[in-house]
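S.,

As promised, the zinc ion run. Input:
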Amino acid sequence: MKDDKLFLEIKSALKNIEIFDTHEHLMYESERRTKKLDFFMAFYFYTSTSLVSSGMKLKEMEKLQDPCISLKNKWDIVSPYWDFLRSTMDFKVISIVANDIFGVEKINLESIVEITEKINETKRVEHYKNILKERSKISFVVNDIDNFGEFGVKKIVPDEDYFLPVIRLDRLMNANSAESIEKIEEENNININSLANLIELIDNIFEQRKGRIYALKTAIAYCRDLFFEDVSFSDAEKCFIKILKLNNYTNRRNDSISLDEIRPFQDFIYHYLIKKALDNDLPIQIHTGIIDGNANDIRNTNPAHLTNLLLKYKNAVFDIFHIGYPFTDELIAMVKMFPNCFVNMCWIPHFSKYLYKQSLNLFMDILPSNKIFGFGGDYLFVEGTYAAQKIAREAIAEVIYERVLNKDISIDDGINFTERILNKNAEHVYLKKESAESA
Ligand SMILES: [Zn+2]
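Predicted complex:
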């Protein structure tokens, strides 16, 4: 039996709770203003994966991301597959964005023209302030965009008090060719002749960005498994020298060593990065579980591979992304065991609301509430973040409502729990604010 009054009371109490957003890839607004945008910007990540999974050719998908192709052509590409997505969260997110932000009810050729016009109008106003701060009530965003280009040593980050940058050195760990080493040398104006040079570069990157970064991030599970062996400097160096030797043959500039072969080097570097994170008091964000795109090996992403790191670095804070899904059960057991291991629900609200609710219920039964980070949109476009927080708030309200109805918790307990997972836990870990327990 549904108690509508109780549900509305809980929903409206949770509506105004501020969110500390633990993970996004949002481009800065100044950059967004210079870009040609259209309705299909909503198809980067996630929806593109679903469309290709449903049968769309990759080449067609690429056309959707080309700003020079007409909306009519793009709609012709999408429409044969669109209906297959109707029950999915991809569809739900796009509907929320169309309805709530652009006042459009149905998605069709006519309405995507209208939405595109409205999207371009937002380039003239304070769109981010409106969407993130006012409508989504997001107080901070931990933003992972720094490393899409250069390492960001020289880059000025606008609005650094709101978009908290992370440091991500995956490209450095994946440097397995003469070309990739040369690129690192050029960007940083250095010569790399030994592993010691590379370590020095890492030290410099951390030094130059001291006090201006909020986490160490890796998404290396897109390229390999997450078991990082404790490798000695000399074993790592032997491996790194193989990469440097490629440099000796100019006609072999494009040659590379397989990522498998450079494992000892990667393992060593990742341990080194963790030590740097510890020295700099930075939480360590690790991508685990679900993977975007249409070809990869999900077995690599099991968070259980991280066990040796959790055992070794007891004082670190490991923020484990995407609830490790489909390995969520393993992750729950790990978060329960290890004081240094936290679960992060980023990407999950709009991956599956059902999964978000089901996982939250398990977390509430099993985990202390200070071990859960409840929100990260993991979006490139700000409207997606709005939709994700709307879905997350609804999902949490539904879970809390059930528990209040069953007299497992009081409304106040539910509000306190929500404040922790959406805000206080992240403020505590990322901004070193007062402990959540004192709330
Ligand atoms: Zn991400």
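Residues 23, 25, 144, 378 surround zinc ion (CB under 6 Å). The first strand starts at residue 19 and ends at 24.

- D.
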